[in-house]
């Protein structure tokens, strides 16, 4: 552990990410007023994914982690997208 | 993570107690080997409860009409049998017992990455089991939904569902924590020189399994919470009367529960991949292909859940998609079988009890796997859905696959775990009687299903009588075999002849340490050289 590089993240960056998360939260509430039809779930999932991505990258320091950890997290996201896509083979064609 | 300590290197883990004594030295131990045995004893106890419930079901079905219980009790018995066997036995199964015990030794480590978290996993497992049992003993009747807790019945039934649902939720946490621990252990604590392509196949199977445990379990966890909320507050996610979708429940449930079948079967395959080269005294055939097939099964296994729902009202497009994907997962499974057979080809086969279990595993797994293709195909599925055929297929895979592998693994690693040998003659007799009983118990169900006998009914038409008698007789024979196996192992653990360090001439690292292993496994962490591999037989 001692050999690993330390990194210092400026507070300003945290504040900007926090602000972005708040804005995205308000958007995810506001978007419920718009009838997106078949894309309602897509919209909600997209916003939620962006928010969790920001938390992972900045608050959980994924940006500064080793490449293989970044790849593993990326693959988990791909798996998640694939599972949602396959589920919608049912809902969109029912 | 492997801090040096004052723990003696010449005292076995069975003798060393540390700061606690007696029972507390077990239930508060952070030693991965003791935790493995804690799981073994807990599971064996619960397994016997599940077996008794299974025997009761089979006894009810020995004749048409009511034999020993009415329909409501039958519903409760098959539900609790399923919940115990699935969530408490076969899902934790090999990873919790042999993964905990063997993984660190097989990769040359002193313990798992997070020993305290490992102990917590066992405590959480016990808490979950206690909750499920509470639902049977107290409240307004035992759960009667089947182990799948299908909506909307699961939030409409008057039975005592909440403790069972919460129990399954808590058991999921145990699984997640074990999976996390194993992934970190394999990434960070392999012996120097043990590259990924030199890691034995049982740890590899645990690696694939751990990812499923980590990523799929939370989905069923949150789904069960939604069912509980639906029951308590009527939130309307799954209730069609409130605009909800009960098929969504089935999607969410099977997104976890189908990969959970691979949580069960992958470590079983991993154990078989250890037993076969050892008893063939030959390098495993196609090591890298076996690794890739393990990961392929773990990955494709995420995308086949819809085959449980072909008759539930899913779209046609989804049905075709899931059917094709289901056929794909058969490919890596078949690759494994071909590689095991090829490993035996021209090997110096040493026919001992573990080999009998491993060979019969391949036999019953093939029957289970091929019958899986029958129910994976759309047209035949519609005919066979929810018939006894599915019960036969499922038990050939899960009890035949996991059970035979589990018994093979315990006979293989028994000398290492307990430092004693078992009586081989009784072990072989137990295996033979168990196998005959198993085939007599489940094979008739294929016939019954094809004749149209539905599953989960306590009664049936006269035309199904003969095959049901055979099946029930099979359950008695199988139980006799099981009793012989268990008594032989218990007696041998106490008073069997002392085992040498490497009784089978195995080549993986667990056979380099004494039997039973010392507390921290190795005096010095072993180093793998360039030429070393896990199965280097001459």
TrEMBL record, chain B:
Family statement drawn from the similarity comment of this UniProt entry: Belongs to the heme-copper respiratory oxidase family.
Name of the protein: Cytochrome c oxidase subunit I
The organism of origin for this protein: Sunxiuqinia dokdonensis
Domain Cytochrome oxidase subunit I profile: 20-529
GO cellular component: membrane
Record key words, sorted: Electron transport, Heme, Iron, Membrane, Metal-binding, Oxidoreductase, Respiratory chain, Transmembrane, Transmembrane helix, Transport
InterPro entries given in the database record: Cyt_c_oxase-like_su1_dom, Cyt_c_oxase-like_su1_sf, Cyt_C_Oxase_1, Cyt_c_Oxase_su1_BS
A Pfam family hit: COX1
Matching PANTHER family: CYTOCHROME C OXIDASE SUBUNIT 1
Cellular location(s): Membrane
Gene Ontology BP, a term: electron transport coupled proton transport
């Amino acid at each position: 552990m001692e050999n690993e590089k330390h990194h210092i993240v400026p507070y300003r960056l945290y504040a900007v990410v926090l602000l972005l998360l708040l804005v995205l939260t308000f958007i995810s509430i506001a978007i419920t007023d718009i009838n997106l039809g078949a894309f309602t779930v897509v919209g909600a999932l997209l916003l939620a994914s962006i928010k969790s991505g920001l938390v992972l990258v900045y608050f959980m320091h994924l940006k500064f982690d080793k490449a293989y950890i970044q790849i593993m997290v990326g693959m988990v996201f791909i798996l998640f997208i694939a599972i949602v896509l396959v589920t919608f083979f049912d809902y969109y064609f029912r | 993570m492997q801090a040096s300590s004052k723990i003696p290197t010449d005292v076995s883990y069975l003798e060393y107690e540390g700061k606690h004594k007696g029972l507390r030295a077990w239930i508060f131990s952070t030693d991965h080997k003791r935790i493995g045995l804690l799981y073994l004893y807990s599971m064996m106890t619960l397994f016997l409860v599940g077996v008794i419930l299974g025997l009761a079901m089979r006894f009810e079905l020995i004749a048409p009409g009511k034999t020993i219980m009415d329909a409501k009790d039958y519903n409760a018995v098959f539900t609790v049998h399923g919940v115990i066997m699935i969530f408490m036995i076969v899902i934790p199964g090999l990873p919790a017992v042999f993964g905990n015990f063997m993984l660190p030794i097989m990769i040359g480590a002193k313990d798992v990455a997070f020993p305290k978290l490992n102990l917590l996993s066992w405590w959480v497992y016990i808490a979950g089991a206690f909750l499920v049992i509470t639902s049977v003993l107290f409240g307004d009747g035992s759960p009667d939904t089947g182990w799948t807790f299908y909506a909307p019945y699961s939030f409409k039934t008057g039975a005592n569902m909440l403790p069972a649902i919460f129990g399954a939720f808590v058991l999921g946490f145990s699984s997640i924590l074990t999976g996390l621990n194993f992934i970190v252990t394999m990434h960070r604590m392999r012996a120097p020189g043990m590259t990924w392509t030199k890691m034995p196949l049982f740890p590899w199977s645990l690696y694939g399994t751990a990812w499923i445990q980590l990523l799929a379990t939370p989905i069923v966890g949150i789904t069960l919470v939604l069912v509980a909320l639906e029951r308590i507050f009527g939130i309307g996610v799954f209730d069609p009367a409130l605009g909800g979708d009960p098929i969504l429940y089935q999607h969410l449930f099977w997104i976890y529960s189908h990969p959970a079948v691979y949580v069960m079967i992958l470590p079983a395959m991993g154990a078989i991949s250890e037993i076969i080269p050892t008893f063939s005294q030959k390098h495993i055939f196609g090591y890298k292909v076996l690794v890739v097939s393990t990961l392929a099964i773990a990955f494709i296994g995420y995308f086949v859940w819809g085959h449980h729902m072909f008759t539930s009202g899913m779209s046609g497009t989804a049905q075709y998609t899931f059917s094709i994907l289901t056929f794909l997962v058969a490919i890596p499974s078949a690759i494994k079988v071909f590689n095991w057979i090829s490993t035996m080809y021209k090997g110096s086969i040493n026919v001992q009890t573990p080999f009998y279990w491993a060979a019969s595993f391949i036999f019953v797994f093939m029957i289970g796997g091929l019958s899986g293709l029958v129910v994976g195909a759309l047209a035949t599925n519609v005919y066979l859905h929810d018939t006894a055929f599915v019960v036969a297929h499922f038990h050939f895979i899960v009890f035949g696959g996991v059970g035979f592998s589990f018994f093979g693994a315990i006979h293989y690693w028994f000398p290492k775990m307990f430092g004693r040998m078992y009586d081989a003659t009784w072990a072989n007799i137990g295996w033979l009687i168990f196998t005959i009983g198993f085939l007599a118990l489940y094979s008739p169900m294929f016939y019954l299903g094809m004749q149209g006998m539905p599953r989960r009914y306590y009664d049936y038409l006269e035309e199904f009588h003969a095959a049901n008698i055979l099946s029930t007789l099979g359950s008695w024979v199988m139980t006799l075999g099981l009793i012989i196996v268990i008594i032989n192992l218990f007696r041998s653990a106490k008073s069997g002849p002392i085992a040498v360090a490497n009784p089978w001439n195995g080549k993986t690292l667990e056979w380099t340490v004494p039997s039973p292993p010392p507390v921290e496994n190795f005096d010095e962490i072993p180093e793998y050289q360039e030429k070393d591999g896990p199965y280097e037989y001459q």
